[in-house]
Amino acid sequence: MECWTIVLSILAGVLAVYYYFKGSNDFERHGIPHKKQFILRTFWEIFINPKSFAEVNQNIYNIHPDAKYVGLFNFSQLVVAIRDLDLIKTVGIKNFDSFQDHLFFGSDSQDPLFGKNLLSLRGEQWRDVRTLLSPAFTSSKMKMMFQLMSECAVNFSEYLAKVPPEKRIMEMKDIFSRYTTDVIATCAFGINVDSMRNPDNDFFKLGGKATTFDTVALIKILLYQHLPRLMNLLNLKMVDERTNAFFVNLVAETIRIRDEKNITRPDMLQLMMDSRGKREGKELSILDMTSQAFIFFLGGFDSSSTLMSFLAYAIAVNPSIQEKLQQEIDKVLEDTNGQPTYEAVNGMVYLNATINETLRMYPVQLMTDRMCTKDFELPAALPDAKPYIVKAGTIIWITFYGLQHDPKYFPEPEIFKPERFLENKGNDNFNAYFPFGLGPRMCIGNRFALLETKVMLFHLLARCDLKPSEKTSIPLKFKKGGFSMRGEGGIWLSIVPRENQYFTQSVIAN
After folding, report:
1. Rounded distance, CA 510 to CA 507, Å?
2. Residue 413 DSSP SS3
3. Higher model confidence: residue 503 or residue 464?
4. Measured between alpha carbons, how far is 74 from 89 in angstroms, rounded to an integer?
5. Which of 108-112, 380-384, 470-474 has the weakest average pLDDT?
6. Judging by DSSP bridges, how do beta strands 77-82 and 395-399 pair with one another?
7. How many whole angstroms separate alpha carbon 1 and alpha carbon 230?
8. Do 468 and 494 touch, CB atoms closer than 8 A?
């Protein structure tokens, strides 16, 4: 571990010295507020005494409260962090052609599960695959997947309702990762996995391994971003051979079985299968299909379970909110005779508001990046400054966490208040709300993530209460280090069977 840090420090430091002087002078000439880079301090803050990723985002956003954008350095990379809402839309939507690529990690030949997926693809390759996959996430497809999700949610919530009292205190990220694993398994791969009752299944274990971005993974990502040739030379990979082989074999076997038995399912893999023989020169290989299925799995496994964890925490520490949700859930159950429909669950007003407020306060995607693909002039950062030409290759950052915690847009931002999404419909301030990104690069699976979250919470709160325990951290503290949202020490809650729940009453009545 120490060897990794020393190697990265020396190599990145040489590059950073050059960019420090070049970039600082450039920012100063144009009157752009910026944070100067000191390599030793940067390494200290990342590897020795790290901050939470939320705090890092907030600090970037606060470099200058009145600037349209600010400057900073990501080791060897010049970064422009945009704060102004109109300018964010200019970059993310109106002038997308100049900012269409992400700076991601992974070599398409060396590390194909990361390098070939939709998040990493660029230019025409990205457009082509995005167009191919988009129909997998339409409302009609979500409606078809609703029943599969519901079966997973019922199984999950019934298991939790029957857990003995001495085992009711649980870590939320862990149990929700098991639920999302089961959903992805059935909705994307057509296989049944019960990760609560069978916690050691390969699908769950390897998924957890692939989404564990520890210090070594962070170093690899930095090497991919700043020294890709060294990464290739050392043949270092984000995904180990066993995980890579498991997913490739799983996709290949799923395709084989569907072909042999003429099985058709409403999912992303089916769309890729159906494209065979119809896209001359653009045929997707098994590895291409696996890469897309893999990133969908990572998003569903990690991002969705993170959202659910913070959602459960917010509900548990706000019992009045939990009561309102359960009243809304019980009403739907009564109206549908205990068989909630897609339309009924999707149309629950307070449930939607609670999830929206969770995404505002605890955004799973704290920021996004864009790479400038052709020179573009930005207006002056401050009234007395000069316009700034962003050169091709410059990185753009948009910190959603900072925007969504700015009291200018969301009064009392540290208070969890679902009502703000009921009272302020049409409020222009909600232009600062980006739960799944923006523009053509918005998260393709946002409908899927929202639906599996709604379905899970509906069935869980129908049967159980969420309560703080002696292991619950109040107020919640974020885990330090890394680049994702996590609770420090985990998010621990007690899950208790509801008294007088609808299903119990129905059994008694019958």
Report:
1. 5
2. coil
3. 464
4. 23
5. 108-112
6. parallel
7. 17
8. yes
Write the single-letter amino acid at 339. Answer: Q
| Lookup result for tokens 């298991």 | 159
User: Hey, is 124 helix, strand or coil?
Assistant: helix
Pairwise CA distance, residues 118 & 426, whole Å: 32
Closest among 372, 368, 365 to 395, alpha carbons compared: 372
| Non-local CB neighbours of 352 within 8 Å, separated by 6+ positions | 421, 454
Note the pLDDT of residue 117.
Answer: 86
String of b and e for 363-385 (b: at least 16 CB within 10 Å)? Answer: bbbbbbbbbbbeebebebbeeeb
Q: Measure the CA–CA gap between 338 and 334, rounded to whole angstroms.
A: 6
Sheet holding 169-171, edge to edge: 169-171, 492-497, 464-468
88: exposed, middle or buried (Cβ count in 10 Å: 0-12, 13-18, 19+): buried
- First and final CA of the chain: distance in angstroms? 63
Q: What is the pTM of this model?
A: 0.91
Query: Mean pLDDT, to the nearest integer, of 305-332?
Result: 97
Structure tokens, 187: 């909705």
Q: Is the pLDDT of residue 77 over 50?
A: yes
Judge residue 29's burial from the number of C-beta atoms within 10 Å of its C-beta, 0-12 exposed, 13-18 middle, 19 or more buried: exposed
Instruction: Using the predicted structure, report yes or no on whether residue 270 has a pLDDT greater than 80.
Output: yes
Q: For residue 113, what are its two tokens?
A: 């599960």
- Contacts for 107 with CB less than 8 Å, ≥ 6 apart: 115, 224, 228, 231, 232
The number of residues making up the chain comes to: 510
Its sign, for the CA torsion 64, 68, 74, 75, is: negative
- Report yes or no: 490 and 177 within 8 Å, Cβ to Cβ: no
Side-chain-side CA neighbours of 245 within 13 Å: the count stands at 3
269 close to 291: Cβ distance less than 8 angstroms: no
Whether residue 264 contacts residue 258, with contact meaning beta carbons closer than 8 Å, is answered with yes
Report DSSP letters for 273-295, one per residue: HHTTTTSTT-PPPHHHHHHHHHH
Q: How does strand 388-390 pair with strand 464-468?
A: unpaired
Residue 66 CA: distances (Å) to CA of 40, 41, 55, 268: 29, 26, 19, 43
- For 66, 98, 263, 370, 479, the CA distances from 367, given in Å and listed in that order, are 19, 19, 39, 10, 17
Give the distance, in angstroms, between the CA of residue 24 and the centroid of all CA atoms in the same chain.
Answer: 32
Residue labelled with tokens 């009045």: 320
For residues 92-121, give the mean pLDDT: 82
